[in-house]
Design brief:
Layout: E1 4-6, E2 9-11, E3 18-23, E4 28-34, H1 38-55, H2 60-76, H3 78-89, H4 93-113, E5 119-122, E6 129-137, E7 140-144, H5 150-163, E8 167-171, H6 178-186, E9 196-198, H7 203-212, E10 218-222, H8 225-237, E11 241-245, E12 250-254, H9 260-272, E13 282-288, H10 289-304, H11 324-339, E14 343-346, E15 363-366, H12 373-376, E16 383-389, H13 392-400, E17 404-405, E18 407-411, H14 415-424, E19 429-432, E20 444-445, E21 447-448, E22 454-455, H15 457-462, E23 465-473
Parallel strand pairs: 7-8, 7-10, 8-9, 10-11, 12-13, 12-18, 13-16, 15-16, 18-19
Antiparallel strand pairs: 1-2, 3-4, 5-6, 6-23, 14-15, 17-21, 20-22
Helix pairs in contact: 1-7, 2-4, 3-4, 3-6, 4-5, 9-10, 13-14
Bound molecules: nicotinamide-adenine-dinucleotide (NAD).
Length: 494
């Protein structure tokens, strides 16, 4: 059994209860972890709060060195961590090797960004005065993370929160707690005890107590809209800050000038990466009429070549979905759109030859429209619905016909198409010709139902710093506007 990480120690839950972590490729139990509840949350928050007293005053250069050490340790254990991520999450190992490297890179990035500045100096309104706008940490930040990119999305919160001078309590998903606990073992021990704590358990049992705790002023959350809404309500009642990174239903436009082979490869990858379980997966494809027939033909043909299998590899493109429940959700949605008249061109079923594991064939659907749930809600599975559009205006209008606004994509070399869409489509990230690529220096987050938080970039650290204005007069003398009032010098009213 792996244990939780509180105040630099590896501990069981106070109740002694545990829960099993399953391999979605084999449905076998990999390990078990403590099942934390409110009393464990209390311990972790107290530890983080006590550690904050010193951490917040630790000079930036020292914090910077420690975060670089964390990054170094993550890289030293890259393969071991990536294998565990693969076992618990089902993404192909080759993708998890990337995830581990990107997580280390995020610690390196914020190690430097976080020591760069801590506010600004503004001009005073009187002589012999100075005015400072100081950025300071909030205290204990709760980081609640989903299962699809467990370490990356954790790092996007933890690295900036720490460099801003906060301490953290991490709550990984109940599906993927093992890799985060492994990082505690191999990397977070570079930090003073209590600065990073990890609690394993379920959302309602330990997530909510963390959100409600009086000593946790900031909740950084990535996950579904439903959970985000629940957390926002709990936080609002307590006037806490929330940073919400929620679901998406990203549009993907393919224009008539796009090279067909390139367009097909890019679109198929955007649809099926991590079995479509990416918050910024291409979930709605809009293709210009003049190339639609060839594009759809190519999309289906290329999809049929994708190799499902053991995500540890080798020679595998797609692993399983995360759980039976997630797969059933996708199946129900496909049943519904079939009833509504959509046509499944390939996939849509569990693959033959896989007696275990939550595998599903990558699926291409046409005959869809915006009355269908596939086009209106997040699917979070390997399903690519394709609609034909007559021009860029129709594509943009359909892309915007959504409650979500996380990411959006276009494939074109036509400047007018690209910039018309970039300007008009409501999305936190707009990708032209390179879908789903993140940049540590570029802010990531959503508009509309996708949440208003931003991670990465300069914006990503601001979410964890609050602003204080310090007004300083370096001459201690009585001011003419103090008591008693001299009415002869008062302001004229006429
Ligand atoms: P989820 O909302 O079910 O769970 C996310 C986390 O919240 C888990 O750790 C869970 O235990 C915890 N949780 C659940 N209920 C809680 C509660 N009441 N209080 C506190 N914590 C609670 O989401 P998921 O299924 O793990 O992840 C998939 C979702 O995440 C998708 O909707 C996807 O789009 C979204 N996502 C968004 C981004 C982004 O950056 N915008 C990135 C990745 C995933």
């Amino acid at each position: 059994m792996r244990r939780m990480f509180i105040n630099g120690e590896f501990v069981a839950s106070l109740s002694g209860e545990t829960f099993a972590v399953e391999n979605p490729a084999t449905e076998e139990q990999i390990d078990e972890v403590p099942r934390a509840r409110a009393e464990d949350a209390e311990q972790a928050v107290r530890a983080a709060h006590a550690a904050w007293d010193d951490w917040r005053f630790t000079p930036g250069i020292e914090k910077c060195e420690m975060l670089h050490a964390v990054a170094r340790r993550i890289r030293e254990h890259r393969e071991e961590v990536a294998r565990l991520l693969t076992l618990e999450g089902g993404k192909p190992l080759i993708e998890n090797m990337d995830e581990v490297e990107w997580s280390a890179a995020c610690f390196d990035y914020y190690a430097e960004v976080g020591r760069h500045e801590a506010g600004r100096v503004i001009p005073p309104v009187q002589r012999h005065q100075m005015n400072f706008v100081v950025k300071e940490p909030y205290g204990v930040v709760v980081c609640i993370v989903p299962w699809n990119y467990p370490l990356l999305l954790m790092s996007w919160k933890v690295a900036p929160a720490l460099m801003a001078g906060n301490t953290v309590v991490i709550k990984p998903s109940e599906h993927t707690p093992l890799s985060t606990l492994l990082l505690a073992e191999v990397a977070f021990r570079e930090l003073p005890p209590g600065v990073v704590n990890v609690l394993t358990g379920y959302g309602d049992e330990v997530g909510e107590p963390l959100v409600k705790h009086p000593l946790t002023p900031v909740i950084a959350f990535t996950g579904s809209v439903a959970t985000g809404r629940r957390i926002a309500v709990l936080a609002a009642e307590r006037i806490k800050r929330v940073n919400l990174e929620l679901g998406g239903n990203d549009p993907f436009i393919v224009c008539d000038d796009a090279d067909l082979d390139v367009a097909v490869r890019g679109a198929v990858w955007a649809a099926f990466l991590n079995m479509g379980q990416v918050c910024t997966s291409g979930e709605r494809f809009y293709v210009f009429e003049s190339i639609s027939e060839k594009f759809i033909e190519g999309f289906v043909a290329f999809t049929r070549t994708l190799r499902l299998g053991n995500p540890l590899g080798p020679d595998v493109d797609l692993g399983p979905m995360i759980s039976a429940a997630q797969r059933e959700k996708v199946e129900r949605k496909l049943d519904r759109v079939r009833e509504m008249g959509a046509k499944v061109l390939c996939g849509g079923v569990r693959p033959e030859g896989f007696s275990r594991g939550y595998f599903f064939e990558p699926t291409v659907v046409t005959g869809v429209d915006h009355t269908m749930p596939l086009m209106r809600e997040e699917t979070f599975g390997p399903v690519a619905p394709i609609m034909v559009v007559k021009d860029i205006d129709e594509a943009v209008a359909l892309a915007n016909d959504s409650e979500y606004g996380l990411g959006a994509n276009i494939l074109t070399n036509n400047l007018e198409y690209a910039l018309t869409a970039a300007e008009r489509i409501k999305a936190g990230t707009f990708w032209i010709n390179d879908p789903l690529t993140d940049n540590d220096a570029g802010p990531f987050g959503g508009m509309r139902l996708s949440g208003g938080g931003r991670e990465l970039g300069a914006e990503g650290i601001e979410e964890f710093r609050e602003t204080k204005h310090i007004h300083l007069d370096y001459k201690l003398e009585a001011k003419p506007y103090w008591y008693p009032y001299d009415w002869s010098k008062g302001r004229k009213t006429d």
